[in-house]
Amino acid sequence: MDTGSYMNEDTFTNPNWKEDYFGPNYDKLLSLKQKYDPDFLLYGKPNPGHEFFEVDGDGRLCRVE
Predict the structure, then answer these.
(1) For 61, which DSSP code?
(2) What are the tens digits of pLDDT across the range 10-53?
(3) Is residue 21 part of a domain?
(4) Has residue 7 been placed in a domain?
(5) Which residues, 6 or more positions from 47, have their beta carbon under 8 angstroms from its beta carbon?
(6) Are residues 50 and 43 in contact, defined by beta-carbon separation less than 8 angstroms?
(7) Domain count, the chain
């Protein structure tokens, strides 16, 4: 039987990603991220803390100052 799979409905360009994906939990999740991964080695978009980085024209991940 073919049941298919769930297609994730998020998008990387959602301007309201903090509220839409994490709601009132965002600040707590960000503080946990900063505590356990202070160098942001585990990067993902959209994840708490990704707004501190941007991808440059060469595809490199750079910290936003």
Answers:
(1) E
(2) 777 888 889 888 899 999 999 999 999 999 899 888 889 999 99
(3) yes
(4) no
(5) 33
(6) yes
(7) 1
